[in-house]
Structure formats: C-alpha cells, structure tokens
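#onboarding

Welcome to the new folks! Below is a worked example of what a typical request in this channel looks like: someone posts a single protein sequence, and someone else replies with the predicted structure as tokens. Don't worry about understanding the tokens yet, we'll cover that in week two.

Example request:
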Amino acid sequence: MYDVLIIGAGTAGIAAAKQLEKLNAKYLLIEEGDGGTTCAKTGCMPSKGLIEIAKKVNNIQSLTKDNFIQQNQFKIDTASVLKKVRTLRDHFVKRAIKGSEKFPRIKGSAKFIDTNTIEVNGEKISANNIIIANGSRPRIPDVFEEVKSKILTTDNFFEQEKLPDSIAVVGLGIIGVEFAQALARLGVKVQVYEEYKTIAGIQDEKVFHHALSLQQQYYPIHFNTKIEKVTEQAGKFLIEWKNGRLEVDQVLLCAGRESNIDQLNLGKLGLDTTDTANTLYDPCTLQINDFPIYVAGDVSSKKMVVHEAAEEARVAVYNAMHTKKKKLAKPALNIVFTDPPIARVGQSLNELDQEKCVIGEFDFALQGRATLKGENHGVVRVYVNSRNDHILGAEMIAPGAENFAHLLMMAIQNEIPLHKLLRLPIYHPVLEEGLRQALVNAKSKSAVT
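Example response:
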C-alpha cells in the first residue's frame, strides 16, 4: 500500500515526487508517454526560443529601415530556425527531468477502480491518496475534426522541417498572439481569426487598443469570426466563414487546452468529467469532493503555467499527507511575451469599484529610454485605492512590462502604499521611469496626502 500515487510525470508530477521524497513517503509515479514537461517540450521554452529569434530578425529589419545596412542583405532560413528551437527545447527537457530518473515509476495508462485504487497495465495498485497530474491536450473544435491530423497545434508545431509561407492562426489568446507576432517577424504571411474581440485576455480597454494597434502592424485580425468550414486539398487549407474564405499553406490552432482528467475513468466514482476539472475539485485545497484524491498542474484547467503547476503540486502533497488542509494562494500575475510584453497584476479594472480607485497612466511614446531603444510604444495603467494609496492592480503593454509586473506584485502582496513606492530610487535613463510616471499620475489623483 502506497502513501501516494501520482498520475502523470510532468511539472506537477515531478514536483509532487520531490516533496514526497523529502517526507520519506512511499509513492509511485505513473507515467504515460515519453516523459518531460509540457513547458519544456511544447510550451513555455520552445515558444520563447522562437520569439527571441524572431525579435533578433526584427532588430535587423529595423536597421535596414534606418539605412544602417542595405536592404535584402539577409535571408531567413526557417529550417535552421526550427532546428535551433528544437536544440533549445531538448536542453530544457533534459533539465526538467534531471534527477527525476531515480523516482519510482511505471509506464502505462491509469484508470480508477475506486477512490484508493487505479489499474495500470492490468495491475491494480492502491494508495492512501492519489494525485492527478496527467496534464492537458490542445482543444480541437468540431469544425477542425476532419483535418486535425494535418493542422498544427503547439504539440506538433516545432516538429516541422521549415515554416510555411502562409498560415492562419486560430485564436488570439496568449499563445495565439505570441506565435502570430513571431511568425510574422520571421516572414510568414499570417492571418488571425478570433471568435470574440479579445487579445491575450486584456481587460482594460485602453491597453487593448494599444495592443490592437501594435499587433495590426504585423498581420490582419478577423475579430468576431466563427470559422464554419476547413478543408484540405493538395497541401493547402481552405478556411471559410460567414463573410469570406481564404486559402493558406497551414493552420495553427491556438484554441486553448483542455484537461486530460476525462481519460481516467472517474465516472466509476460517480463523477462527471464531461466539462473539466473545474467543476470537480475545491480550488483552495485541490481536493475532489471528500475523496483522498487531489489535482495539480494543467489537468486543473486553470492557469496552465509551470510555476503554478509546481505550487499546486506542493499544496496537493501537503493536503494528502496532513489532516489539516493548506489553502492554495493564487496571486494574479499574467505575462504575455509579445514585443512589447503584455502584463496584468492584481485585480483587473472590471473587478474594481472605480468610484473608490484612481488610475495612474503613462504613455510610453514619451519615455526616454524606450525612445533610445526604438521601442517607445505602449501604455501602463495602475489602479490604486484612493482611500489608502494601496495598489490594487495594473494592466499594461510596454517595454519592460514583464519586470514592472513583478515589482507591482511585490507591492500588492506586501501592502506597500504608493508614497513609499515613490521614494524608491530609480536610475536614469531606464524603462522603470515610465512606471514611476504612472505612479506619480495616480498619486496626483489620490485623496491621500
């Protein structure tokens, strides 16, 4: 009898095993597939590798616009680009699983028999607790069902030999907007289709319009467009919607990911998994009903990012091994690695009582260091409690946003009021001066003296 069974050996599964090692617990990993994490294999790391290469290409193109180098002096070898990304990916996969080879594990697909027992390869295995961490898969809307084996998702994108000449990116969430900009910078003719009017989940209307203006420099966006039919013939894809049709070389589907929890036979326990894990577990304790079963990582269908998966694993292990349950802290911090980056921290504007807060704003068109870098575009919007000067949240698209967001998150978590933040020294010339101007703007509107 094991203390804990862990279903899945990705980020959450490995993090759970590490915690159980420290507790000298008897546990077993059940791994289906080749191992490694979604982040390292197909998500965070290879996509950021592609983004960084695209940024370098864009910098060279900027030099040609300024006549520092002659036009048409370089050609992008997309086969070499993808080969480099795969090399980086393989490096990070090895790092992700390093040290985990020693963990006790078996390969196979797990199915629940009862609340304490699963079946793997025909063998029944029991434990006092079970942690579900078997990840997620790309969501494939019904309209793509007939061509799903031929189109691209983030799971198979980096296996291409070279990039296509033209591509339709379907979905303008975080992944869609990152890929669309990078591909356009690498010379691919990109068209983007989004069923709603949204970019990377941006909530603040002013930030949205800045993002829209910047992204439309790279590719056309078809908002409020529901694709009705997709067919493939002779290596081309025909996309049809209510008011038009378009032929492209390839389709990249960025319609989100869905939980793999429906693959575990949880119906045997009287649970409905037709939706996602969202309806099954307590988001604070990660426990399913009062069963000795917990979820962690992408399978939870919440924020599918590596650091949150690892934290969920730590909480799931603690709660599996203790009677008194620990609650998961979920700091609101989102970063999109476009250029410039998009970030949201704390509460969004539509969650706030705007009569009780002031908004500090700064447009980066006026920022000194950003102008020197040729990146003077974007806006920072900071939301401040007008009664006590505490920062409630912020949303931005600006150079340096990924760093600003962390500074603001620390201020929110430590309840540092605005006037104390403004006492911090800021060197000149740096991008942080732009964030300071947004804070100064908020202070000028605040009732706190």
